[in-house]
């Protein structure tokens, strides 16, 4: 958002523990995925026992990892705070990444039940810098938030007219992730009645709500957004500055 975005003051900063935990991790909002070109051949890599090294295995796991992540998603959603805490303790440099060996220990501690092959694929996918380190922040947000439409989503059972103009999402910033993760437990608890309330405000059945109505619905379910929280959400869901939010897209991020 530009100058038309809500004014964010220091007093509006969330004091929730997860916001502090996430905001202390300084990462690029859209990290570059591992490349498979020949230009990577000269870079430093870790032993083959820790991570697949061939071009085929670097490119193939992307689709397979979705299946693996779906398998462990429910477990991650219940234990992500504990996983994050341990990862941050290991991440002494505050870079949002830890050695692959440390993540293997964490996965065993939290009973993710991944085979050796599945673990190799996960660690290859989230070795974003090809340096033998695991980007735990990206891994957790990918398992907790669903920021792309998938077939079979629970919300696709609801027939709602699509917006006249396609909405282009904004940047996935660290602050946006922090806000979404902080309210995730409350959303999961009440998303069904919240969806019905959103629809009751949406008299024209466009699937869109004005910002004020969107915020009011959240308040009805005891989710009180600070100005900074609202700014972070609008920055992603109202990238075209329409002052409207697709509430289905918003809920879909939490309902896997």
From TrEMBL:
Pfam families: EF-hand_7. Residues 1-56 are annotated as: Disordered. This is EFCB6 protein. It comes from Thinocorus orbignyianus. GO terms for cellular component: nucleoplasm. GO terms for molecular function: calcium ion binding. Residues 194-254 form the EF-hand domain.
């Amino acid at each position: 958002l530009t100058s038309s975005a809500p004014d964010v003051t220091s007093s509006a900063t969330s004091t929730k523990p997860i916001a502090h935990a996430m905001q202390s991790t300084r990462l690029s909002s859209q990290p570059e995925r591992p490349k498979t070109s020949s230009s990577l051949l000269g870079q430093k890599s870790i032993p083959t026992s820790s991570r697949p090294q061939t071009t085929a295995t670097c490119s193939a796991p992307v689709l397979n990892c979705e299946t693996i992540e779906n398998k462990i998603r429910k477990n991650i959603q219940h234990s992500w705070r504990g996983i994050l805490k341990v990862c941050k303790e290991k991440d002494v440099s505050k870079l949002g990444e830890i050695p692959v060996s440390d993540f293997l220990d964490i996965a065993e501690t939290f009973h993710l039940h991944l085979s050796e092959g599945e673990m190799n694929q996960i660690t290859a996918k989230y070795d974003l810098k090809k340096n033998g380190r695991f980007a735990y922040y990206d891994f957790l947000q990918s398992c907790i938030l669903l920021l792309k439409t998938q077939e079979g989503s629970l919300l696709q059972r609801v027939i709602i007219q699509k917006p006249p103009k396609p909405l282009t999402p904004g940047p996935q910033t660290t602050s946006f992730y922090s806000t979404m993760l902080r309210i995730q437990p409350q959303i999961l608890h009440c998303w069904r009645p919240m969806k019905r309330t959103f629809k009751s405000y949406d008299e024209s059945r466009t699937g869109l709500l004005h910002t004020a109505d969107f915020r009011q619905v959240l308040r009805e379910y005891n989710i009180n957004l600070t100005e900074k929280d609202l700014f972070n959400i609008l920055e992603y869901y109202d990238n075209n500055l329409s002052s409207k939010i697709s509430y289905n897209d918003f809920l879909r991020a939490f309902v896997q």
